[in-house]
Backbone:
């Protein structure tokens, strides 16, 4: 937050006649009602200077025996007061208000970042030492299971398997629903009902989706305790569908009707217009939205607990047998972190958490990259 | 190939709202017909009913007969998609497809309909259409650049090239110059003059001089009062319309004493 000039409202430029002109709306402005005081500017380093001063105040208070937290708080208050007051003295009231609000907004941002930063720092610090090639390629069979010395290959495989199944189910249903809602059903009763149901679906607690999948496969398979990856995929798909519908719907609505009409006017049938004009125009947003939806469900635990079970070896068969995913592995391993081999299990859990965060972040990055790659170009 | 259009007793609705009432006219082949009239009197509505684009709007419908080449466009067995292949349209705002290059935009009408053609045929169509739209010289070195990167006037001519690439019989233009500068406007007016030898052209314009310059015949639309449906007040050769109109309302409008 070194340069406040960017944020401090419309700059005053000077028109050729020497009258100050408000750059944003071109009006010729005299002093506004709130503009009391001088017309000078704070030096560029103003924020930094006051910041140093505030830190000095906090340090001094701390040395004088005040607790660390009160000292920091008082230092912050000093900054919060001094900066706008200085601005008021040198500039005017409008700028002073602007600077006060700017500081408050930055504060809110910093506060919001604290949990995130601390979380990532902790996970990286404790998880990174556990990561090795073996950790990613071994499973937990044999002795490794007891001692927790193996790897999380089965959980990686399971996460991929379950997420892919969820995507295979949810993406076609979600995209087609959105296409119908925007292109065919617009304004109809059925569309209103479906939109409402999608909203309801968004609010389904994830454990309920898991229970649904569990009950569904109990009935279908007739087994009292079904354990299969497809079940997990179904549960995640249930959570994913509304997100996909919403994301795709918003993207399709952004495609101007002009383009649809241009295509119709060329004698292109409606379905072909949708497939070849509307979807390609919206593809960047659609792929981004879908990728983010995948990233969201990849980290789900609750819906999977009942249906996928626990596995310590890699199981690529989606129709039979328990699988382990990263979140269920983490959850299931927590009760082993005490005891004789507790330290090894603790490391494994932190390592798995780090891997999961990396995967989800990577998916987010991929979504952004895809978004910019597919975006319509003008150059 | 150009065809004439017979419009008889046409009423056009948006849902229950009767927007235009009782239109009768004959649009001659290989000529330019201009629609003029105050805003909201239904010029665009009539124009869009000529290629069944009107019904794209939910609830919109057309009553009456519009006959092209002996075939009523609104007969139940007629496919609106086929009508639109026969009657092309250029819109008020240029709307090239943003995902396509200049080249792809021009042949989009053929490609989107999955017409198979080899590279040299396609190249030929693109060059012919762009030449037809007076755009070839400006873009021939950057055919693979995005169409959205052109200037507004160039985009509008690209849209005209796209419309004529499918070789329609009739070309409808809804205020094609309203977003353009005088130079692009005059380029498009020249183009309309040239296209007239091959196509039947109908153009909506708010610019009297433009109507006088480019059109052979002119239709004047008006509203009796706000809330009333629009009507075709007068349909006559442009020369007569601008020198000695039948209706006093037409004269008032043209001379600027009205609307
Ligand atoms: N999509 C629509 N839904 C409902 N009514 C419409 C729609 N489009 C136009 N109308 C109505 O139909 C009437 C004619 O509109 P139209 O767009 O044909 O006018 P216009 O003569 O083209 O006007 P302008 O010169 O401003 O383009 C107007 O009363 C308008 O409000
Ligand atoms: Mg109009």
Residues:
């Amino acid at each position: 937050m070194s340069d406040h000039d960017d944020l401090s409202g419309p700059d005053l430029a000077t028109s050729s006649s020497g009258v100050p002109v408000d750059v944003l709306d071109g009006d010729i402005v005299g002093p506004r009602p709130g503009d009391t005081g001088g017309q000078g500017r704070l030096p560029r380093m103003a924020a930094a200077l006051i910041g140093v001063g505030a830190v000095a105040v906090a340090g001094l208070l701390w040395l004088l025996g005040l607790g660390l937290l009160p000292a920091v708080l008082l230092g912050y208050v000093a900054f919060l007061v001094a900066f706008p007051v200085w601005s008021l003295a040198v500039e005017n009231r409008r700028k002073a208000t602007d600077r006060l609000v700017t500081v408050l907004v930055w504060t809110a941002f910093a506060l919001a970042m604290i949990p995130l930063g601390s979380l990532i720092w902790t996970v990286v610090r404790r998880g990174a030492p556990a990561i090795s090639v073996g950790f990613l390629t071994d499973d937990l069979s044999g002795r490794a299971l007891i001692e927790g010395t193996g790897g999380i290959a089965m959980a990686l495989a399971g996460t991929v398997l379950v997420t892919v199944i969820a995507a295979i189910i949810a993406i076609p249903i979600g995209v087609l629903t959105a296409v119908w809602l925007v292109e065919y059903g617009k304004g109809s009763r059925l569309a209103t009902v479906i939109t409402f149901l999608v909203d309801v679906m968004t609010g389904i607690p994830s454990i309920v989706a898991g229970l649904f999948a569990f009950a569904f496969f109990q009935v279908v398979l007739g087994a009292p305790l079904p354990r299969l990856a497809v079940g997990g995929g179904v549960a995640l798909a249930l959570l994913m569908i509304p997100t996909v519908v919403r994301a795709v719907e918003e993207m399709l609505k952004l495609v101007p009707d002009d383009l649809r009409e241009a295509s119709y006017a060329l004698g292109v049938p409606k379905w072909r217009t949708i497939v070849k004009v509307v979807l390609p125009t919206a593809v960047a947003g659609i792929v981004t939205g879908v990728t983010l939806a995948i990233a969201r469900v990849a980290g789900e635990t609750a819906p999977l607990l009942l249906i996928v079970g626990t596995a310590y070896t890699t199981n690529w068969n989606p129709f039979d047998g328990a699988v382990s995913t990263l979140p269920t592995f983490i959850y299931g391993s927590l009760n082993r972190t005490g005891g004789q081999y507790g330290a090894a299990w603790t490391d494994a859990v932190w390592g798995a958490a780090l891997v999961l965060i990396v995967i989800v972040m990577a998916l987010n990055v991929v979504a952004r990259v895809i978004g910019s790659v597919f975006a319509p170009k003008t150059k | 190939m150009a065809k004439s259009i017979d419009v008889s007793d046409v009423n056009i609705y948006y849902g229950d709202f009767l927007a235009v009432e009782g239109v009768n006219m004959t649009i001659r082949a290989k000529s330019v017909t201009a629609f003029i009239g105050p805003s909201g009197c239904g010029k665009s509505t009539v124009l869009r009913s000529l290629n069944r684009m009107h019904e794209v709007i939910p609830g919109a419908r057309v009553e009456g007969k519009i006959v092209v080449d002996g075939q009523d466009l609104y007969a139940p067995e007629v496919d609106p998609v086929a009508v639109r292949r026969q009657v092309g349209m250029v819109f008020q705002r240029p709307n090239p497809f943003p995902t396509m290059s200049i080249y792809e935009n021009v042949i989009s009408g053929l490609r989107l309909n999955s017409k198979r053609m080899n590279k040299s045929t396609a190249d030929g169509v693109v060059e012919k259409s762009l030449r037809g739209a007076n755009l070839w010289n400006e873009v021939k070195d950057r055919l693979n650049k995005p169409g959205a990167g052109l200037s507004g006037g160039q985009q509008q001519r690209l849209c005209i090239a796209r419309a004529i690439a499918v070789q329609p019989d009739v070309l409808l233009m809804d205020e094609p110059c309203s977003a353009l500068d005088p130079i692009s406007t005059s380029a498009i007016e020249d183009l309309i003059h040239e296209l007239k030898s091959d196509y039947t052209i109908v153009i909506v314009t708010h610019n009297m001089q433009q109507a006088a310059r480019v059109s052979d015949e002119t239709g004047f639309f008006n509203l009796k009062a706000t809330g009333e449906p629009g009507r075709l007040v007068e349909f006559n050769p442009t020369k007569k319309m601008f020198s000695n109109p039948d209706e006093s309302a037409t004269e008032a409008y043209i001379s600027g004493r009205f609307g």
Remarks:
- Chain A is about 70% helix and 0% strand.
- Chain A touches chain B at residues 186-187, 256, 258-269, 272-273, 276-277, 280-281, 283, 376-379 (CB under 8 Å).
- Residues 1-30 of chain A have pLDDT under 50 and may be disordered.
- The two ends of chain A are 34 Å apart (CA to CA).
